[in-house]
Fold:
Amino acid sequence: MVLFGTTSELIFDINLIIQIVLIILLIIGYTQKRTWKYHGTIMGVGTLAMLFTVELIMAPSLVANWAAIALFPTSPGSMFTMIHVLFGTIALVIGLIFTIRFLYFALRKKPLTCGTRTQMRIQFAIWILAFIFGLSFYLYFYVI
Ligand code: HEM
Structure:
């Protein structure tokens, strides 16, 4: 069964939907900074959801397809995958650092100085780039 009528397996359609929801959450968390607690909670939830989809869906797919990537490292599909994995891993690591700092300060009722505005903007851009290359992967392998 497929959701979008593409050649993708159901689990990757579900992943695509989750990633679109997370991008919407990211934009809400980025633009609607009512309080830093509200902003940090939205971003923290989004980052943890991203961690689960990486662990349960994307990392297993990477491992399963590693032989093909190693065999044809310069093919467009391998390039999309590797650039996506690079940006995705950076976004995940930085997001987890911000989330851990947020929880640490929030639990101790200290000022929520989780990162600078510039660091947050860089993280936002990297997350969007990871999404764009993930979407490119999906379109390249399952639509075109
Ligand atoms: C900000 C973080 C990330 C975002 C927004 C993101 C987004 C996406 C999207 C939209 C897709 C296409 C849907 C699909 O085919 O499942 C995808 C696929 C994929 N992602 Fe990510 N991703 C992120 C992090 C990662 C990380 C850290 C890895 C490394 C393990 C990774 C590995 C993959 C792989 C291997 C696929 C292809 C899955 C398939 O076989 O279809 N992603 N990602």
Notes: Helices lie at 10-31, 36-64, 66-71, 76-107, 117-143.
